[in-house]
Design goal:
Blueprint: E1 6-13, E2 17-18, H1 28-41, E3 52-56, H2 67-74, E4 83-86, H3 92-105, E5 111-119, E6 125-126, H4 129-140, H5 144-151, H6 156-159, E7 163-164, H7 165-169, H8 179-190, H9 194-213, E8 223-224, E9 230-231, H10 243-246, E10 269-278, H11 280-286, E11 292-301, H12 310-322, E12 331-334, H13 339-349, H14 352-359, H15 378-381, H16 385-402, E13 407-414, E14 418-426
Helix pairs in contact: 1-2, 3-16, 8-13
Length: 427
């Protein structure tokens, strides 16, 4: 397999804002525009010099369906720069990068703004099918009397209960399981206990706090709302998080006996992340100084009921192609959809039966967790579904450079039973 390395010129992301009691302060396009504007203002080229803008978004609002085009126009890229949107569930942001890579490799583009965004706090409330049918029948009523009699058929308790769009989106329609239930499957399969999950989750917060104190999140650009309020940091990081505190939370997805809680799951968040990708010719033309390059990528499919193991299936072929062992990369970023999901990946690589049956390989051994998510992960930082795949690639490059390291792998699990991975190198 031939892969022409593609340069990562620069990148930026917003703080990830935790969804709380209602819609967040920013629409998805607002998030993408604020991060993109700050990023483009510091470049040697103009927004109109871009060849295209590609945005991954799992849940665009009805007035931002092709959010890639909306954002490109709002960023001042001009009418001639195409903008388009991709969707691969949790890896939508990584898919945007991969789509940009493909277009650069085939010569269609030289300079691309690619990334992802989601404002999950603004996921819609929907009417039930029964309520939609009630409205349809109302539209067919011709006289005032017919309409009045139809209103007598309205049963608020049955018809007006909203359908939560986010919960439907996070449930696999093929196997009928929520993403949290698939994490419960992995916990059972690999014998991962509640205490282990909570310890992993507390460590994610601790690493994020330490990373913040060390200035590890230089890729974040602040957000400013219409009232002038500044949002400068990921607001779900808990300095006081502890395994003992997390142990008090009740299971969410498998009541009352499950182990997956809100505390050992990724946070539902709003946020955007961008990278500027370039060919060697564009780097020379604009005299750019890239952060690094993407040297390999891979997508994989697996059982949707075990979707959290997607990173194992996507990263392993990269290791095989590149002649690497599991601990040869200097750093790893595996998106923390759930603590049990990441821990399940680590155990699958070290499980002889799993590797033989699913990967057709020998066991890969135990990944050194000092190399994994060194500045925390989505349990602490948040998981705006469309943005996370781009965030982990961008932060991996920053983390490698901060430690004067060379090579790392970013990987993510994907609802529906898929995985994505990218191998990056610093310059």
């Amino acid at each position: 397999m031939s892969f022409t390395p593609i340069y990562v010129v620069d990148g930026a992301r917003t703080p990830f804002l935790k969804a709380r009691s209602g819609p967040g302060p920013f629409a998805a396009a607002d998030l993408a525009v604020q991060a993109g504007r700050s990023l483009l203002l510091r470049q040697a080229f103009l927004p109109t010099d871009l060849d295209e803008v590609i945005v991954g978004c799992a849940g665009p609002s009805p007035d931002e369906i092709n959010i890639g085009r909306v954002v490109a126009l709002r960023l001042g890229c001009g009418q001639k720069v195409p903008g388009w949107t991709v969707m691969r569930n949790c890896a939508s942001g990584m898919q945007a990068l991969d789509s940009a890579i493909a277009n650069i490799q085939c010569g269609r583009s030289q300079l691309v703004l690619a990334g992802g965004v989601d404002a999950l706090s603004r996921a819609p409330l929907l009417y039930s099918d029964a309520m939609v049918l009630w409205f349809a029948a109302l539209m067919q009523a011709r006289t005032a009397g017919e309409k009045a009699r139809h209103f007598l058929k309205l049963k608020p308790s049955a018809l007006l209960s909203p359908v939560i769009g986010l919960l439907k989106g996070l449930t696999d329609p093929v196997v009928g399981l929520s993403m949290g239930q698939t994490a419960e499957n992995l916990a059972w399969r690999f014998g991962i206990g509640r205490g282990e999950m909570d310890e992993f989750s507390a460590r994610s917060h601790q690493r994020a706090v330490a990373g913040r104190q060390a200035g590890a999140f230089g890729e974040i650009v602040p957000l400013v709302d219409g009232d002038g309020k500044v949002y400068a940091e990921d607001d779900g990081v808990r300095p006081d998080s502890s395994a003992a505190g997390l142990a008090k939370l009740k299971p969410v997805f498998d009541k009352p006996y499950g182990n997956i809680t809100a505390g050992n799951s990724s946070q539902v968040s709003d946020g955007a992340a961008w990278l500027i990708l370039a060919s060697a010719a564009a780097v020379d033309q604009w005299r750019l100084e890239p952060l690094g390059k993407i040297v390999d990528s891979q997508w994989a499919g697996l059982d949707p009921a075990q979707m959290g193991l997607g990173p194992v299936h996507a990263a392993t072929p990269i290791l095989q192609r590149q002649g690497l062992g599991l601990n040869d990369p200097d750093l790893w970023e595996i998106n923390e959809a759930f603590a049990a999901q990441v821990m399940g990946c680590l155990r699958a690589w070290n499980d002889a039966g799993y590797c033989r049956e699913q990967l057709e390989s020998q066991p890969w051994g135990r990944l050194d967790e000092n190399k994994l998510n060194v500045d925390g992960g989505a349990v602490a930082i948040g998981h705006p579904v469309g943005a996370s795949g781009a965030r982990i690639v961008l932060h991996l490059l920053h983390a490698l450079r901060a430690r004067q390291k060379r090579r790392g792998i970013a990987s993510i699990c994907i609802g529906g039973g898929q995985g994505g991975a990218m191998l990056v190198e610093t310059l």
